[in-house]
Amino acid sequence: METQKNNPLHGIKLEQIISDLQAHYGWEYMAYQINIRCFTHDPSVKSSLKFLRRTPWARTKVEQMYLNYLKNIK
């Protein structure tokens, strides 16, 4: 089994990404940064997971936001 040395998100579940971002920034800031309905109208981890799993462009933006978050906390 190959390891993914160049993938900093390897092994991190999307649910963990959303939960960490929400706990650190809150839904309002996340909606400001990435204007998607699952962050702006009645946000929840469940609705975000459902949308982001079906929408690659939005998932990419959230993953990039998470990578920036990781850089800032180190």
List keywords for this structure.
69% helix, mainly alpha, Transcription Termination Factor Rho, Rna-binding Domain, Chain A, Domain 1, 74 residues
Structure notes:
This protein is an all-alpha fold. It has a domain at 24-73: Transcription Termination Factor Rho, Rna-binding Domain, Chain A, Domain 1. Helix content is 69%, strand content 0%. The chain is built from 5 helices and no strands. It has helices at 14-25, 27-33, 37-40, 45-54, 56-73. α1 (14-25) crosses α5 (56-73) and α4 (45-54) packs across α5. The relative contact order is 0.17.
The beta-strand count equals 0
Instruction: Find the structural class using helix and strand composition.
Output: mainly alpha
CATH top-level class of the domain at 24-73: Mainly Alpha
Give me the CATH superfamily of the domain at 24-73. SAP domain
Which geometry do the CA atoms define?
Answer: globular
What fraction of the residues are assigned to beta strands by DSSP?
under 5%
What is the correct CATH architecture of the domain at 24-73?
Orthogonal Bundle
Number of helices: 5
Radius of gyration: 12 Å
Straight-line N-to-C gap: 29 Å
Query: Largest sheet at a glance?
Result: none
CATH topology of the domain at 24-73: Transcription Termination Factor Rho, Rna-binding Domain, Chain A, Domain 1
Helical content stands at 55-70%
